[in-house]
Specification:
The protein has about 120 residues and is an alpha+beta fold. It has three helices and eight strands. The protein is globular. The N and C termini lie far apart (about 50 Å). This is Lipoprotein. Keywords: Signal.
Length: about 120
């Protein structure tokens, strides 16, 4: 009887893994945009929160999004002061423009690559 109860608990724990609505996430992420030249790196609670200058308007701005910050934070290790961050509205590509190269990352969810 004890083994049966432990087996049920074990199966319950592993069958309750999180499931994601990848298509819904992708549609949600499309609505965000970011365009800035990084002037200040911030590491506030491991969320994506960079401050810089918009190269078009020349005004100070930030790329802090409640929606996309978890996705964008995956690439924080690639971002340095002076890089330009680009995420266009209606697209699912996050790009980091460096002096000599461009790093582009498509949104991925459950093994599917979104563009």
């Amino acid at each position: 009887m004890r083994k049966y109860i432990l087996l049920c608990i074990y199966l319950n724990l592993f069958s309750c893994s999180p499931t994601y609505n990848c298509d819904g996430l992708a549609e949600n992420y499309k609505t965000d945009e970011c365009l800035l030249i990084v002037k200040k790196l911030t590491d506030k609670y491991s969320r994506f929160n960079y401050i810089g200058i918009n190269p078009v308007t020349k005004k100070e701005c930030n790329c802090n999004s409640a929606r996309s910050s978890r996705w964008w934070a995956d690439y924080s290790g690639n971002i340095e002061i002076g890089d330009t961050i680009v995420k266009k509205k209606s697209e699912l590509v996050f790009s980091i423009h460096k002096k000599d190269t461009v790093l582009s990352f498509n949104f991925e969810c459950d093994g599917k690559v979104y563009k």
